[in-house]
Amino acid sequence: MSKACDSGRGGLSRRRFLGRVGVSAAVGGLGLPSVGWAQEGSGPIDCGPPPKAKKQSRTGGEAFPPLPLPVTPLRRSEKKRPPSPPALVGKMAMGQPRWIERDGKRVMYRDWMTDPADVKTLLEWTNQKLGIHYRSVEADFAHFSFDPRELPALLLAGHNRFSLSDEIRARLARYVADGGMIVGDACCGWQDFADSFRQEMEMIFPGRPLRKLLPEDPLFSTYYKLGSFTYKRGDGSTYTEGPVLEGIDFGCRLGVIFSPADLTCGWDGHEHPRGVRVVIDQARQIGANLVTYILGNFQLARFLSTAKVYFEAEAPSRDDFVFAQLVHEGDWDPDPSAVHNLLKYARDNSTLEVKFKRANVRLEDPAAVVYPVLYMTGHREFVWSDEQARRLAQYLKAGGILFADSCCGRMAFDSAFRREMAKVLPDHRLERLPADHPLLHCHYDITQVDYTPRVREDFGHFNTPEIEGITIDGRVAVIYSKFDLGNGWEQFPHPYSYGVKDEDALKIGTNVIVYAMTH
């Protein structure tokens, strides 16, 4: 991690920040002309005490100069500075500057300062709980490098409305695409901030709306197994219901996480007679899961930021196998490198003439029927129209094959796929393929497979291939795996996936291609 967070580009201590403001309250005086902060807000100006002062590290022998006086080297009484731990989260300086009276002095205030010790206190707590050693820093848009290698996550928290410039929006979009994460928190559950955050995310990531996270999302089980949350109102009353966290997916990871109910006050361990917040203990458990998620997915996020190029995409493909992937209303392409790697593996390990080409098709597209196999995957719910279901039924009965897997083994996709297939082929049902089925032996003899640690943790230890199918006129027309295959095809660790490990996933995929070309 770069130490630039603490100095020029990334970090900005409160003392240096206030000094830089001087007597001007104008935004231009902050060196932030491109950010364009919105109207003055109405939120509270104090949610918690400032961070505790760091302890002064001196050995007992250095408390007083040794006798005889008068000379001792100055360096013997200097503070000892152990190496700083890596910076994990940067809290972004946000909000229009205002001058307020505090302790008889006129001081400058901005919205992000209302809870100054929130993420710092959380990391101190998680460092102890998880046995790790990371720190937070204060950062601002004017000096941050927007490089996730410098800061893997950015925290945007406050009460008031805000807006960002087009330049900052573009740089945040690139930051997340490169593997970074944006964490948003509406301090005290303040609606003004929540509305602004949602609006900004919509502008930064058009076509990728914030969605409510499902109980099966890994964020709720990375360290603590979390269920319903307990929320506290400003009058002190509490109620219990499901999590209200929202997120935006980028492949197999969350690039944006937002809480419209306050978490940061809970991280800092204090309460106020206002707003709606998650109670302290659970807020910190969510924080621990968030820190674990950031650490677990950082390398995957960097890997997913590199797109694979299908270098034969424009090559003629009349007599060759071309992989066609179904576009649907869910997150239809969470593993952008998966198909590329499978095609390369199949060509390198068989006599197949496989083109490095993936055609993205929709069921309503007449061109979909020319491909021998349609592949589909995803994490979330999807629904086919009656017309789409009719076209898919015609395709399958005419000899086509649908090959599908639930990305990361998510239950939402699994439930949707089973329901929609019952609509497509009401007289057939998915059944587990027997161990001697030709699909499992047409190229590789697949009798045992290895699963990811999460499968063994939640489903117990087994090693049989759990491939299901629908048979029409003696041939398999639908091939389905409720455990992920695409993550394995990518050949990069997906820490929160319920799936088949790399080598066996590639073998299953190769057998499907061989089966399709020979049946």
Could you give a quick summary of the protein structure above?
By secondary structure, the protein is an alpha/beta fold.
- Biggest β-sheet: strands ordered side by side in the sheet: 4-1-5-6-11-10-7
The CATH architecture category of the largest domain equals: 3-Layer(aba) Sandwich
CATH topology of the largest domain: Rossmann fold
Distance between the termini: 53 Å
Q: What is the overall pLDDT average? A: 82
User: How many domain regions?
Assistant: 2
CATH superfamily of the largest domain, called what? Domain of unknown function DUF4159
**Structure class:** alpha/beta
Low-confidence stretches: 1-40, 56-74, 309-313, 315-319
**Main CATH class of the largest domain:** Alpha Beta
Describe this structure in words.
The structure is a single chain. The protein has 519 residues and is of the alpha/beta class. It folds into two domains: 3-55 and 83-304, Domain of unknown function DUF4159 (Rossmann fold, 3-Layer(aba) Sandwich); 321-518, 3-Layer(aba) Sandwich (Rossmann fold), CATH 3.40.50.12140. It is 28% helix and 19% strand. It has helices spanning 14-21, 118-130, 166-177, 191-204, 264-268, 280-304, 338-348, 386-397, 411-424, 453-459, 486-490, 502-518; strands at 87-92, 98-102, 105-109, 135-139, 153-158, 181-186, 211-212, 229-233, 238-241, 246-250, 253-259, 276-278, 321-326, 354-361, 373-378, 401-406, 431-432, 467-472, 475-481. The strands form four sheets. Strands 4-1-5-6-11-10-7 form a seven-stranded mixed β-sheet. Helix 7 packs across helix 12 and helix 8 packs across helix 9 (411-424). The protein starts with 13 loop residues before the first helix and ends with a helix.
